[in-house]
Design a protein that fits this description.
- It is a single chain.
- The chain has helices at residues 6-15, 47-60, 66-75, 92-104, 124-134, 155-169, 174-188, 201-209, 229-247, 267-275, 308-321, and strands at 24-29, 62-63, 82-89, 109-113, 139-141, 149-151, 213-216, 253-255, 280-286, 298-300.
- It has 336 residues and is α/β, with parallel strands linked by helices.
- It has 2 domains: 6-119 and 196-321, Glycoside hydrolase/deacetylase (TIM Barrel, Alpha-Beta Barrel), CATH 3.20.20.370; 124-188.
- Strands 1, 2, 3, 4 and 7 form a 5-stranded parallel β-sheet that branches. A 3-stranded parallel β-sheet has the order 8-9-10, with helices on one face.
- α1 runs parallel beside α11 (308-321) and α5 (124-134) packs parallel to α7 (174-188).
- It is globular.
- Bound molecules: zinc ion (ZN).
- Zinc ion (ZN) is lined by residues 88-89, 217, 221, 257.
């Protein structure tokens, strides 16, 4: 099925050109849910929406693997309307839901995988959400988080409560955050069984075997500004070593956890990723990657439109307006 008109393609060629002025749209996805989920935020991507996105992209853009796209960006040989697809964190639905849709359209993607949660782990946000989903309690005393006593009502109420709790814990120091989430899990008493949300080792291996790119994303997903530089280095190195053991190849591209320049990571982390020998890194700042960008702070984009034409127009507008993405500024050194 074709969604796009020749006019839209022509506009795309003009708004997202190739060659020396090449522009690369790097799209970010996290989960691709089998069904819409009332407990997750409104910009969630489910299988239907993702399939719409991929059909529109396959129809109107040229999808390249991220390593190949970055090589061609720097060589000035990018095709017009170039897109690279990325997925962060290592969710199992990337394998079970997204991969078949990608393959149906013969699209390739990069998966930035946190090794610390593979198999049976849960990331802190999912501990909170899944605890609230399963709890049979009528309220939770969250005074210790400054949130007072909160009623556990219907899914809508639980979604709002999850949002409040995540806002309260997200920027806690890493260990405190882990402890706070474990405490919420225990208080909510959701039963022994934790759902499996992340990929298994075998699924990561299989993604790589299917020709997908595996990228690094730290072992435990700390916000880098919240941990010491030494701890950040250890976490990144551990992630890269475990991924290398898993897929038999060393990941060359890194995605900063949470990814907001200045707020979540600083230039010392950009330098760290460079020093560790990665060839490029992506943030979550919105924008379009061009030759002028710092290859260690490439912007991405994450629209969640349902209408394919709106989706494509939003990508093209980003290609025009996103040329000055936010970056963590380089610190002046005594040698400067
Ligand atoms: Zn992440």
């Amino acid at each position: 099925m074709t969604f796009t008109s020749p006019l839209l393609r022509a506009a795309g060629r003009f708004m997202s050109p190739g060659g020396g002025d090449g522009k690369l749209t790097i799209l970010t996805y996290h989960r691709v849910l089998p069904e819409p989920d009332a407990l997750l935020n409104r910009d969630q991507i489910d299988a239907t929406k993702f399939a719409t996105h991929m059909a529109a992209i396959a129809d109107c853009f040229t999808v390249l693997s991220l390593p190949q796209a970055l090589e061609r960006l720097s060589a000035g040989t990018l095709p017009p309307r170039a897109v690279a697809l990325t997925f962060d964190d290592g969710y199992q639905d990337n394998f079970t839901v997204a991969l078949p849709i990608l393959q149906r359209h013969r699209l390739t993607a990069t998966f930035f995988v946190c090794t610390g949660y593979l198999n049976d782990g849960l990331m802190f946000n999912d501990i909170v959400t899944e605890a609230l989903r399963r709890s049979t309690k009528s309220d939770l005393d969250l005074s210790w988080l400054g949130l007072g006593v909160q009623a556990l009502s219907d899914m809508q109420g639980r979604r709002e409560l999850a949002f409040k709790i995540l806002g309260a814990v997200k920027y806690l120091p890493f260990t405190e955050r882990e402890l706070a989430c474990a405490r919420i899990w225990d208080m909510a008493d959701p039963g022994q069984h934790r759902p499996r949300l992340m990929m298994t080792d075998d699924q990561v291996r299989e993604l790589a075997a299917q020709g997908m790119t595996i990228g690094a994303h730290t072992h435990t997903h700390p916000i880098l500004n919240q941990v010491s530089l030494e701890a950040a280095r250890e976490d990144v190195e551990k992630n890269r070593r475990l991924l290398t053991e898993l897929i038999g190849e060393t990941p060359t591209i890194f995605a900063y956890p949470n990814g907001r320049p200045i707020c979540d990571y600083g230039y010392q982390h950009v330098q760290l990723i460079k020093d560790l020998g990665f060839s490029a890194a992506v943030s979550t700042a919105w924008g379009i990657a061009t030759k002028a960008c710092d290859p260690y702070q490439l912007p991405r984009f994450a629209p969640w439109d349902t209408n394919p034409r709106h989706f494509i127009m939003r990508l093209l507008k980003n290609a025009v307006k996103g040329q000055r993405p936010t970056v963590a500024p380089r610190m002046a050194s005594p040698d400067d």
